[in-house]
Automatic annotation (TrEMBL):
Membrane-spanning parts: none
Species the sequence originates in: Thermoactinomyces daqus
Keyword RNA-binding assigned: no
CDD domains: AdoMet_MTases
Name of the protein in its database record: Methyltransferase domain-containing protein
Length: 189
């Protein structure tokens, strides 16, 4: 297949912005796949800060990171992503290279626990505030669950409203598949 999936695209863009020794945020840790990708990309001299409201998700991610030998550079927070500004080291404001968000619910977990626009939009704004110039934020949008389309609509509206002098925004969407996931990529200028 020539066209990349949204997750492949997200990783491609993140790799362009996140150098070894860099700083990254995983706004929705989930099962830890993105957290591990960020930890491997930044390496042991960098730092990854991950947020999730579910202890089970954090435990799965911790095990995945430990098994891969990538836990040392990762700090996991049992907190909503909209609280990241309270947890991140203040010295890193304006120095974060990359932020990843995978919205929806924890795969193979409790599907009634979902991300919501009320916390997602403030979290995206906070992550953008902490990004450095040239930093990338990716946000995977899933619409096939209750509340998913509403949240996706708000994220797209938020991203569309960003000042083009400060941000460049791309939206990847399969248009011939009903309820296909999509990806918003934001580059801070």
């Amino acid at each position: 297949m020539i066209l990349p999936s949204i997750l492949q695209s997200a990783r491609h863009y993140i790799k362009q912005a996140l150098p070894p020794g860099g700083f990254a945020i995983d706004g929705t840790v989930g099962n830890g796949y993105d957290t591990l990708f960020l930890a491997e990309t930044t390496g042991p001299s960098g730092a990854v800060f991950g947020f999730d409201i579910q202890q089970a998700a954090l435990q799965q991610a911790r095990c995945r990171l430990e098994k891969a030998g990538q836990l040392e550079q990762v700090r996991l927070f049992h907190a909503s992503h909209h609280r990241m500004g309270e947890e991140l080291p203040p010295r890193l404001k304006g120095k974060i290279h990359a932020a990843m968000f995978n919205l929806g619910y924890l795969p193979h977990g409790d599907s009634s626990v979902i991300t919501r626009k009320e916390t997602t939009i403030p979290a995206l704004q906070t992550a953008l505030d902490w990004l450095k110039s040239g930093g990338i934020l990716t946000c995977a949008l899933y619409t096939g669950h209750p509340g998913g389309q509403e949240e996706a609509d708000h994220v797209i509206r938020f991203a569309t409203g960003l000042c083009p002098k400060s941000y460049q925004v791309l939206w990847q969407q399969l248009i011939n598949r009903k309820q296909a996931p999509s990806l918003v990529i934001i580059e801070k200028r």
